[in-house]
Design a protein that fits this description.
It is a single chain. Helix content is 30%, strand content 28%. The protein is α+β, with helices and mostly antiparallel strands. A four-stranded antiparallel β-sheet has the order 2-3-1-4, covered by helices on one side.
């Protein structure tokens, strides 16, 4: 069993929540993704925060290009490891 994780970066909480819900439908993800607020360095304002969706993929079945294409609809991207 590997510890493969995908970190998906979204511009705001609403987009992150929508992506987390849509992952199950689009990719058949069983495990609930984890949402994390990622404040930009030196910024305290919530508007200056990105949101991360952390998704485990132990089977390695999710394709990075497909995830990037999927995330583009929310102005998001997959962070490279």
């Amino acid at each position: 069993m590997s510890d493969v994780r995908h970190v998906l970066v979204l511009p705001d909480r609403e987009a992150a929540e929508e992506v987390a819900e849509a992952l199950a439908e689009r990719f058949g993800v069983d495990e609930e993704p984890r949402l994390v607020r990622d404040a930009l360095a030196g910024e305290d304002d919530a508007e200056d925060a990105q949101w991360l969706v952390v998704l485990r993929d132990e089977a390695g079945r999710l394709d990075a290009d497909e995830l990037n294409e999927f995330l583009a609809g929310w102005d998001g991207w997959r962070e490279e490891p």
